[in-house]
Fold this protein.
Amino acid sequence: MRKLLILLLTLCSVFVFSEAPRVLRAPVWIYLEEVPGSFENPNPEQLPPIEEINEIARFILSGMVGGWNFSYVPGDRKRNIQEDFVLETVQDIQRNDPQLIIDSLKPAYPKLTCWAQFTIDEAAARRLDYWDSIRFRPAKGRGIGERVQESNGIRDAYTNAVLHAVRSLARRLEKNKPKEIRGEVLLREGPRLFANAGQFVAEVQVLVNIREIIPYTLY
């Protein structure tokens, strides 16, 4: 009887553990004030700090939950082509999404910091299972954004970090420079953002799925 009771308790604990919702978390912060001297040219589109940090949180978590589609055009001096990189969210997290929580909000001058977390539902879980496939390649990158751009500078830092990861992977895979590369990336947990010399610096790890490599046509 005692062994049976222990077995039942073990099975119950395993069931409860397996049913526990998965939560993705990321540290998020913004500056509470604009760059000194920018008051002479105030930005009318500047959001209140709490809304601004919500925007950044949704941008980062969207990359972790659904990922981003990208289009990358490598720069080519001989062909007079400038490097171009476009990053688009696969599925945006809405502002009022109940699965999104801004936790441990802390004003610590000159920053406002928090932990942003998103509870995974069944659809998001299937999407993450898709990304767990071994066919997708890991990559990491570092990118910068200008401090004077405020929250847009933070977005630029993350976008440029993903660009660096995609560019590094593409150079390892392709000997000849292609015309364009299209695919998708998933931001892994543990992204890092810090400030250095008037710039935002983001460090990320991603999974990359290259869907299409378009070569230059030879005539």
Observations:
- The mean pLDDT is 87.
- Helices lie at 2-19, 49-65, 122-131, 151-173.
- The chain has one domain: 20-214.
- The beta strands are 23-31, 68-73, 84-89, 100-108, 111-119, 137-146, 180-187, 192-196, 199-214.
